[in-house]
């Protein structure tokens, strides 16, 4: 075994374009774990939208959720024990929400294990269908004004509007936030210092596995830091162009079991 710890994105990486886990990918993961490897899911999804998939794969390790803002451990009673969280700086959430509300976007607030929206839309319905986890409709602005902790803000909209939202965040370094795309129509906003890369380093320490013995799989801009930090970063041919420009170890796309190829060929060294 060449790499003892794999941190992998879910959507666009492990799952195909129909958001399904194929038999080939599932078997590759289970073969890797049976051989002694540690396989951890890392996603922009909230933790409760990851548990069913982890159970389907037979994984009993921590889940890296919300791009690393919340790390949680599934428990025997099918609940979650939050191990670490990194919320936004105090007092800025309302400002950010107000600034972005002027754009035609679906704004989604993630707080610990909760997903909050002010109202539902085609975007939220689409995301709920993908993840199998529905948002709670609440008066967001009131909650933020009253100190609701925010771990991630997800903006969903057309690519040109996402560009404008990203520029707004970039124009306010005092917010201490970082914005990155998980896909062309999704902008993920978390606190500076929160990333899948930081989560990978935490897991490397937790499992006493050197970074040189880690591998990362991903396709989105938000995956780039962990892909670059791992002993080996592997992407798929369906990855965003800005990922393919940087990561040169590339496997077939997510509709052709690219993740399984990566696990077998690079992590297991099976040719």
Q: How helical, in percent, are the residues?
A: 25-40%
Supply Rg: 18 Å
Strand content: 15-25%
CATH architecture of the largest domain: 3-Layer(aba) Sandwich
CATH topology of the largest domain: Rossmann fold
Strand order within the widest beta sheet: 8-7-6-9-11-10
Count the DSSP helices.
10
Spatial separation of the terminal alpha carbons: 12 Å
Name of the CATH homologous superfamily of the largest domain? HAD superfamily/HAD-like
Q: What pattern of helices and strands is seen along the backbone?
A: EHEHEEEHEEHEHEHEEHEHEHEH
Helix-and-strand structural type: alpha/beta
> What can be said about the biggest beta sheet?
6 strands, mixed
Structural shape: globular
Q: How many discrete domains?
A: 2
Tell how many strands the DSSP assignment holds: 14
Keywords: Hydrolase
InterPro entries: Cof (IPR000150), HAD-like_sf (IPR036412), HAD-SF_hydro_IIB (IPR006379), HAD_sf (IPR023214)
Protein name: Cof-type HAD-IIB family hydrolase
GO cellular component, one term: cytosol
